[in-house]
Amino acid sequence: xxxxxxxxTDGGNNxxxxxxxxxxxxxxxxxxxxxxxxxxxxxxxxxxxxxxxVVAGIGFFTDSYxxxxxxxxxxxxxxxxxxxxxxxxxxxPSSDTAIKVSTSGGTVIGQLxxxxxxxxxxxxxxxxLELIIIIFATLAQALNSNSRAISITxxxxxxxxxxxxxxxxxxxxxxxxxxxxxxxxxxxAMMNAVLAMQGIGQLTAAILALIVTTGFKGSLESAxxxxxxxxxxxxxxxxxxxxxIGFGAVPGCIALYYRLTIPxxxxxxxxxxxxxxxxGTDVKAYMNGKAEGHPDEIARVTAMAQTAPxxxxxxPPSRTSATSSWFFLDVxxxxxxxxxxxxxxxxxxxxxxxxxxxFRKNAIGNLILVCAGAIPGYWLSGHALLAxxxxxxxxxxxxPNSTTFIVxxxxxxxxxxxxxxxxxxxxxxxxxxxxxxxxxxxxxxxxLPNAKGRDASPWLNHIMYIFALFMLCGxxxxxxxxxxxxKTLEELAGExxxxxxFGLVRTLGALTNGFDRTPNFDPALIGGAHRAxxxxxxxxxxxxxxxxx
Length: 549
Description:
This protein is mainly α. The chain has helices at about 20-25, 30-40, 45-80, 95-120, 125, 130-140, 150-180, 185-215, 215-220, 230-245, 250-260, 265-270, 275-285, 295-305, 320-335, 340-345, 355-370, 385-400, 400-405, 415-445, 460-475, 490, 505-510, 540-545. Keywords: Membrane, Transmembrane, Transmembrane helix.
């Protein structure tokens, strides 16, 4: 080993030195990759982790707001565009279902398309593009107007499909980027922090609806009910729904710059771009709060030609457990979540002496459902059904809604991670589409014309039974979900010996082969030195590793 190989960056800068000088003495590119990624896995939690969570989380906030705001808006659309002798200010069930399904339909396209592109052309190139689509489509929705050539329903469906494509792209990208930048210790917490912004988005939509309703109180109180909301009241409602929808573009505009300037993840640069030099310097840059590393270009190109063929490519995984669990969850989660206003009416929570009271109670009811874990008891007095519904909403987010987002972003090799996450998420949105298509016709089965409240949804209890059955099916998929706690992404992808990454397979394997074997493990994936990178040797191994190569 030459002394030059062990030198730090010129000038004695011990705080930030280049990958070439740290690991140039290691000839095996797989070993160099392992050591560099171990620095990310073992790094202390810092501001660069907070920044990654905030940048991804703001986008998820926007996604959730845009998805669930329509739940509050459809009743307003009925007053503005369907206040005639036929509909009496209520949006037709077919139009209501089509508007809600359109977002999920676009989301499926976005999850599959952006997930695949993120694995092919890179996370950085795709991140931000989906947010631009969301911003543009959201503003376009708020500027929609009815005409004889095309109905308001058709226009909103078109723009919500486009918005859904952008939202769908955010699912795999936000999950994968967060997981690939996270440390092993904090990865689950970071990914869950990003997902938690979904609840904040729902909460903001309900709060804004309450604020807007209060702001137009004078105009709304002029109408005793939905049918009587004409003239000044109708104009106020027209302004209200545009404000609620249009606000969804504001957080997206705030996050756009940071998404467009986020660095490429080192894992993608290693495993897909196969650029060992660039990935190594990117690791160091990221750890020191820099956007990206700047290796010597001649050395980088030379190293790519020499080391790229030696980097092993893991096989694509099978993740039917994550896919099926997300499907079963979203059937009930979106089947209920996008119809909160209808369910609140069936429970008997909505209603009032004026149109203002109707909108106000609807907004407060949605606030209660979002804040399920911290609702004062007086809100629930006399409303036992509402209490049970609140409890169900709490456990949606307490358990499966978090794990279905986290697990697919952890358990697949880098080359297939975004595609796999997109496929799993898309299966969930297919479930959401099925739920919406089935919910509307079944809910109103046997209802009398112009029925209100509970009488308008005579089959709602049977729909709850159906959703409960899907949740039971989701329970059984839990036995197939891998345990990811304190495991590196490389261990979960099957690249490291000594760990079986599948839940049920791990249990069965212990009975036959023991826990010391990993299915389809290829030693070449981690280089020539098959040693654990523990806490004790993480600081010194990068200088000692040359002796074992």
